[in-house]
Design the sequence.
């Protein structure tokens, strides 16, 4: 493979689109939020920071740093000798600075062994204009230092039997600096490894896989930071491999663009936006390119990626994608493809909304200049852009609204309204003279409510703020009165900051409704002893579009239990249709605390970058009434985390009796618990989580158990509809990358998808330990466990599968689909297919299902209906593997077909296996037992064994005891092989008859012989025995068995037919030589 500055790669559109978020939070980073301890002095303004360690396109693999702190250096744009240095600990926070024009440089530090190292740095792209009393925003991208050293660690799992598996890490600036590893040289399911002492900077990663002439793999860009580790985890299944073809052509780019950009990649998609293939071989002679990719026929399109070096180190720091170009492809390949670098169009431009660019590459940052006409202001919730049927709303609270250009032509949209006069409006009538400021307006409302005759239906008050304001705590409590107060900004976003510590900005009493309507930000205090807003019984708090509640750390030393942002007491109601709750914290519920009997409805907005001990984003206590609890039908909870060990719920914590319902397109993503359980959601004992609609829990991490969801003892989780749990991780010694169900917990899966989750140990998709799991529908697919149970792992309790699919999962040692080292697994419908188990050393057990127990554990598998097909194991039990003193497998119906393994293509019976019905067919064993390998006792009373293949025992391979009932049949095309067990020094295997019905032959027997084919060794040995249902006076039915061949299983290609003239079975069931 020739590697140049032009990197050709092909990756899924789904992945690319996920990278176009304008802000990507580090889910495990420390977030000490710094609010303003007092009112901002009149000659100062507020700078709101967003520090991001990546390019705006975020197409690279980045380290997961926990930066100790950030150093900010503000330099006067007009006098470089005048500078101010600040130190902060949060990535998303605000600092106050004297009004003026400033350049900002940021350095991020990590702490190792008590020493601080500057790992990354960045600076503002343009001077910051800070106005007295105003707020401005600054987004700083942090790039790796080029004079340090870091590391890259990885895991890579893939099917067994690969011809090539190679990982290469190559410096972009100097391709001669290269690290390479042959993953087949040290085989294992996850192939963990690392490259240490790498010079910091930008690298290209190539992961190349080949199997039977088909290819798969991955190519990515990697950032290496000083004293940090960048990590990647890859999982491939058989479906990722495909036939390859060559495609080639040229790239055409104008001289103006080529002066600034380098071509770094070419992406290839099918017409519906799905991945066509990963590139396998690339040769480049600029401007010509050739790639070997998945063979594809039909409409497709390409995109060209561009890289730009911003610090002259030779490495691209920003990346852009050109406009897509449709093309028709052939499975035989195609040449002469001309890719022209073009930009996407931006329309909807007017004199009042002007973007800084009128055309842009995908990934370009677009800033908007909003200049409303005189007397007009931006209407809340209207600013955004559209493409096709999609509308994306923008943050209207930002001083300079911006977004990352999507891969489409777009149109800017915005609505404007008359600027309201600052003051107070009562039931639609302005109060004159207008009160000055929020405090005065609230005082006027209190006087109006408590004095004179006040209507029982209440009044509607609207406060319009024309400036930022710092105020003390406000008790909006009016006993026996109905009061609705709306606060909105005039002309621009207005910040109301709390000036007094140890207090709430607003406390709402019975009958009071407080609405944050438009352009209002409530800001708290870093070391506060109260939630920012308290919603008492009978009160209502609403947040609408373009509102914010930020920067309040509640230390929970008072009488309340938590809620850095909002505390919803019993009987209180909080409705969030938009806005953001961010950068806050508490002992419980960093963003929101829903007390017992409280109600929180969220249909829009975001809860992000908060932290706590329980529920980094939201804490939900007992529901008490059917209408209480937390219902989320829209919006996002992301980037929150747990800040201390022994607690859980990075995104949401559902306490005993609490109820949390996710519906619509609500999302919980990118939250973390670096200490314990439940990266996304923690459901405590007695709590309940319901996922339905198109809700999603994705990209969360837990150090121990339940990367996506943790369900404690007596907790309950119901999943249905099109909901998804995807891409979550359990990263340490626990398990349950997607879901963990503790002893006594309950999980009912009626629909939805659990996909692409990973566990460092057991249960890539689901882990159960003594709980109950009922699967009536849905899909568990593409999950990976580094030990056992790629799809599902259970150590106790019960798992009943009535429907749905468990497919394409992987495990290292056993149970690619399902692993049962304890408990009862009942398959009564659904499909377990295309799962694999591979430890890299030909020791994988139970591709579909593995049931193994020890001396003190008990496991049982009952198969009533359903199918187990197309699974693979590298050692034994392609479909099912059962072993252990206390293990029992009963097959009453269903099908086990199309599975493969060296021993026991369909089933490996290392313990008790009873087949009463169903079918074991078309399975393949490369060594022994195509249908069933009998190491202990196999009882066949019904069902069919047919169409299986193996060199020895195509139907059944008998090491110990094969019990055949009256109606038992093994098809004539499937031989029953009886092992002589000479090597083991034990008695030969036997067939035990428990009754006899009919007159047709019930099996064809092959006999085991050692090298040299000493057939005499069988003379006088027992082949058949009477069982409990076979009369002692009745002769053994010799005619019911056909003697087949003498077979040496060590040399399976050689077999000798048994001559019936010289060998027969006598009435005692022994082989006689004539």
Sequence:
């Amino acid at each position: 493979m020739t590697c140049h500055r032009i990197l050709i790669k092909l990756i899924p559109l789904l992945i690319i689109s996920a990278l176009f978020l304008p802000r990507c939070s580090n889910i495990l980073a420390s977030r000490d939020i710094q609010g303003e301890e007092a009112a901002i002095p009149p000659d100062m303004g507020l700078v709101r920071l967003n520090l991001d360690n990546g390019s705006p396109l975020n197409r690279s693999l980045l380290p997961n740093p926990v930066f100790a702190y950030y150093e900010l250096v503000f330099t006067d744009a007009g006098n470089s000798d005048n500078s101010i240095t600040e130190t902060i600990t949060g990535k998303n926070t605000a600092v106050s600075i004297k009004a003026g024009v400033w350049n900002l440089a940021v350095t991020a530090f990590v702490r190792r062994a008590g020493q601080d190292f500057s790992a990354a740095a960045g600076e503002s792209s343009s001077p910051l204009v800070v106005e007295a009393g105003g707020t401005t925003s600054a987004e700083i991208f942090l790039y790796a230092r080029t004079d340090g050293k870091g590391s890259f660690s990885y895991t890579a799992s893939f099917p067994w039997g690969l011809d090539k598996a190679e990982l290469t890490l190559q410096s972009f600036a100097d391709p001669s600096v290269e690290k390479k590893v042959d993953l087949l040289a040290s085989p294992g399911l996850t192939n963990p490894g690392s490259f240490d002492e790498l010079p910091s900077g930008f690298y290209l990663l190539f992961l190349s896989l080949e199997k039977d002439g088909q290819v798969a793999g991955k190519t990515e860009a990697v950032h290496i930071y000083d004293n940090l580790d960048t990590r990647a985890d890859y999982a491939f299944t058989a479906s990722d491999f495909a036939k390859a073809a060559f495609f080639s052509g040229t790239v055409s780019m104008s001289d103006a663009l080529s002066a600034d950009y380098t071509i770094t990649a070419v992406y290839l998609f099918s017409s519906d936006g799905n991945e066509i293939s990963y590139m396998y071989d690339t040769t480049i002679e600029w401007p010509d390119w050739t790639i070997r990719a998945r063979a594809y026929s039909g409409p497709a399109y390409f995109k060209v990626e561009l890289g730009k070096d911003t610090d002259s180190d030779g490495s691209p720091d920003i990346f852009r994608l050109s406009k897509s170009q449709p093309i028709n492809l052939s499975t035989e390949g195609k040449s002469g493809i001309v890719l022209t670098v073009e930009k996407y169009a931006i329309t909807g431009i007017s004199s009042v909304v002007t973007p800084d660019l009128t055309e842009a590459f995908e990934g370009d940052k677009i800033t908007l200049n909003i200049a409303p006409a005189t007397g007009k202001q931006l209407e809340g919730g209207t600013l955004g852009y559209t493409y096709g049927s999609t509308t994306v709303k923008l943050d209207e609270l930002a001083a300079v609204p911006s977004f990352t250009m999507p891969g489409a032509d777009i149109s800017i949209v915005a609505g404007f309204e008359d600027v309201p006069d600052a003051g107070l409006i009562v039931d639609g009538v302005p109060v004159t003279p207008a009160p000055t400021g929020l405090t005065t307006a609230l005082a006027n409302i209190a006087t109006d409510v408590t004095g004179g005759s006040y209507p029982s239906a209440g009044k509607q008050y609207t406060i319009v703020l024309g400036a930022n304001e710092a105020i003390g705590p406000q008790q909006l409590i009016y006993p026996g009165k109905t009061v609705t107060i709306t606060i909105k900004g005039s002309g621009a976003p207005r910040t109301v900051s709390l000036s007094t510590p140890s207090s709430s900005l607003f406390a709402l009493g019975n009958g009071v409704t407080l609405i944050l309507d438009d352009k209002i930000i409530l800001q708290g205090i870093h070391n506060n002893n109260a939630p920012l807003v308290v919603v008492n019984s009978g009160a209502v708090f609403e947040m609408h579009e373009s509102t914010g509640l930020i920067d309040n750390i509640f230390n929970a030393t008072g009488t309340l239990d938590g809620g850095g942002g909002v505390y919803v007491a019993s009987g209180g109601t909080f409705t969030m249709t938009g806005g953001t709750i961010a950068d806050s914290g508490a002992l419980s519920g960093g963003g929101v605390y829903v007390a017992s009997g409280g109600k929180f409805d969220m249909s829009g907005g975001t809860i992000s970058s908060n932290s706590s001990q329980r529920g980094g984003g939201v804490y939900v206590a007992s529901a008490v009434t059917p209408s209480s609890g937390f219902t989320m039908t829209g919006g996002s909870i992301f980037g929150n985390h747990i800040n201390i060990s022994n607690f859980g719920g990075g995104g949401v914590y559902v306490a005993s009796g609490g109820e949390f319902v996710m519906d619509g397109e609500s999302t919980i993503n990118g939250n973390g618990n670096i200490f314990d359980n439940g990266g996304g959601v923690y459901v405590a004992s007695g709590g309940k989580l319901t996922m339905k609609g198109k809700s999603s829990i994705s990209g969360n991490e837990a150090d121990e158990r339940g990367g996506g969801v943790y369900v404690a003892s007596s907790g309950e989780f119901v999943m249905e509809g099109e909901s998804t749990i995807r891409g979550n991780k359990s990263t340490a010694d626990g398990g349950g990358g997607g879901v963990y169900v503790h002893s006594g917990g309950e999980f009912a899966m009626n629909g939805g998808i659990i996909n692409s989750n990973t566990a460092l140990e057991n249960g890539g998709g689901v882990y159960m330990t003594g709980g109950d799991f009922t699967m009536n529908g849905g899909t568990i697919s593409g999950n990976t466990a580094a030990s056992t149970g790629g799809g599902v792992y259970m150590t106790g309790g019960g798992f009943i599968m009535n429907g749905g699919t468990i497919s394409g999962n992987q495990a290292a040692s056993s149970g690619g689909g399902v692993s049962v080292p304890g408990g009862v697994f009942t398959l009564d419908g659904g499909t377990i297919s295309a799962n694999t188990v591979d430890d890299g050393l030909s020791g994988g057990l139970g591709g579909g299902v593995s049931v193994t127990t020890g001396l003190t554990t008990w496991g049982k598998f009952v198969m009533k209906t359903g199918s187990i097909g197309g699974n693979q194991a590298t050692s034994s039990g392609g479909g099912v593997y059962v072993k252990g003193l206390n293990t029992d497998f009963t097959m009453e119906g269903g099908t086990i077909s199309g599975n493969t393994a060296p021993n026991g293509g369909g089933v490996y019976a290392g313990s008790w296996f009873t087949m009463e019905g169903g079918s074991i067919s078309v399975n393949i064993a490369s060594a022994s037992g195509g249908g069933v390998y009998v190491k202990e006792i196999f009882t066949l009373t019904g069902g069919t064994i047919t169409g299986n293949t193996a060199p020895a025992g195509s139907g059944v391979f008998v090491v110990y005891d094969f019990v055949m009932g009256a109606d038992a049949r093994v098809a004539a095309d499937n031989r029953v092989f009886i092992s002589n067990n000479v090597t083991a020094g034990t008695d030969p295997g036997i067939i035990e008859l428990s009754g006899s019905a009919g007159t047709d032959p019930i099996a064809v027997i092959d006999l085991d012989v050692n090298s040299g084919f000493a057939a005499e060794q069988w003379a006088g040995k027992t082949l058949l025995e009477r069982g409990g249902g076979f009369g002692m006076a009745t002769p053994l039915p010799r005619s019911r068995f056909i003697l087949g061949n003498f077979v040496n299983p060590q040399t399976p290609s050689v077999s000798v037919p048994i001559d019936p003239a010289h060998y027969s079975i006598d009435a005692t069931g022994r082989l006689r030589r004539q």
Notes: The first strand starts at residue 44 and ends at 52. The helical segments are 13-18, 255-258, 437-450.
